[in-house]
Design goal:
This protein is mostly beta strands. Helices cover 6% and strands 43% of the residues. It has a domain at 19-110 and 286-397. A hairpin with a 5-residue loop joins strand 23 and strand 24 (323-325).
Length: 397
């Protein structure tokens, strides 16, 4: 969603961018709603507070919804692949390692994939690669799936609006806000070049990609403020919003001629104050061909760096700007940071030769790794199909 244009540009320039088990087997495996068991008010209150012990799997009715927040994430998993049909399961994970089976699809080679999670915690957005006229929505507490018809024309859903996910943001000759029934609510900004957006935490504005920086637009439509970034050029894709650094600042990747066609991370204030470069220009000398994201742990900045020909890795940036790779034990080296929680990063590891991936928690300072959801050991299975953290576009917790 966020970096397609920048990655394509970079690749063209340098070949660098590519709680207990369920009550029965039927409850755990069929494609249906689980249905919450009848409980007394006291039992229900207790359920909403108690989390599943680490390493154990609970059912949907056991999810402590009141506890869900930063550090939780949704992950979709299968032992199948595009050649081998297998069931696909959606799990909810808590930060301590407990997980809950929310839904399971029948065996398929082309699963619908989770694309976003509503801020009110209640719904997940599902899409299928290549399908641009419909998306689906899964009610996480009930397992009910509904279809949202967008139109017969190609559209690309960017995600839910914030804070609660009462509408969707869609890219179609600009950025539109549409209802959960698919009807147009407002055209936020017009132009075929506008293809990415993130909602402000309060939902009143959206930060949109721009040819020479970012564009702050009203959720009702219209540009509020243009936010230029030094050197950003439309020829190479301009700037793309990635997520919120804090409530007043967006983190963006921008490309300029002076950056030798490599994306660079900038902090762009909503107020219109001068942006700040968080990473320096890259030329690949230290193996970093550009940066897609960045996080601050104490005084240390870590980056999501582009490696050679389609790989990504985690880098530790020194005070001088030099990047040192953070090796993830057991990984082939192609790693993407999904989210952060406390002193840890949730990392999706991609295998070198087969299309499969796993999830681990990584402490980047100590290099300690804790396995979360691993790809099939025998190979040939995709493993983690998609993963979405709570508050995906929000600031680092």
């Amino acid at each position: 969603m966020v970096l397609t244009g920048i990655v394509a540009t970079t690749a063209a320039a340098a070949c660098v961018v590519s709680a207990t088990a369920a009550a029965s087997a039927a409850t755990a495996r069929s494609q249906r709603s689980f249905g919450a068991a009848a409980r007394s008010a006291t039992a229900a209150a207790a359920e909403n507070l108690a989390m599943m012990p680490a390493g154990q799997t609970g059912s949907r009715s056991e999810v402590p919804w009141r506890a869900v927040g930063p550090g939780w994430f949704l992950a979709e998993y299968t032992a199948g692949s595009y050649k081998k049909a297998r069931p696909v399961t959606l799990y909810l994970f808590d930060p301590a390692g407990g997980r809950y089976e929310l839904y399971q699809w029948a065996a398929t080679t082309s699963p619908w994939q989770i694309a976003d999670w509503s801020g009110d915690k209640s719904r997940a957005l599902l899409e299928q690669p290549g399908e641009t006229s419909t998306v689906r929505q899964l009610a996480l507490a009930t397992g009910k799936i509904t279809t949202i018809h967008l139109s017969s024309h190609p559209q690309y859903v960017l995600g839910y609006t914030r804070p609660d996910g009462t509408n969707l943001l869609v890219s179609k000759h600009g950025i539109d806000r549409v209802s959960l029934s698919g009807s147009l609510q407002a055209r936020l900004i017009s132009g075929s070049g506008y293809t990415s957006a993130i909602s402000a935490p309060n939902g009143t504005t959206e930060m949109v990609n721009g040819p020479n920086g970012l564009e702050l637009v009203s959720n009702a439509g219209g540009i509020v403020r243009r936010l230029p970034v030094p050197g950003a050029t439309a020829k190479l894709g301009g700037c793309t919003p990635v997520r919120w650094w804090n409530s007043a600042t967006a983190l963006a990747t921008c490309v300029s001629n002076t950056d030798i066609y490599a994306p660079r991370v900038w902090l762009v204030p909503v107020s219109g104050a001068a942006p700040t470069a968080l990473t320096p220009p890259r030329n690949g000398d230290d193996g970093d061909y550009g940066d897609l994201d960045a996080w601050r742990f104490g005084k240390t900045v870590y980056v999501q760096a582009l490696g050679g020909c389609g790989t990504r890795y985690i880098g530790k940036q020194s005070a001088s700007g030099k990047v040192t790779p953070v090796n993830v034990k057991g990984s082939a080296g192609n790693n993407a940071v999904v989210a952060t929680s406390g002193s840890r990063m949730l990392v999706q590891e991609f295998t070198e030769c087969t299309p499969s991936s796993s999830l681990v928690w990584l402490n980047p300072a100590t290099r300690a790794v804790k396995h979360v959801l691993m790809a099939p050991a025998t190979g040939g299975g995709e493993g983690v199909v998609a993963v979405v953290p709570y508050n995906r576009d929000g600031e680092q917790p």
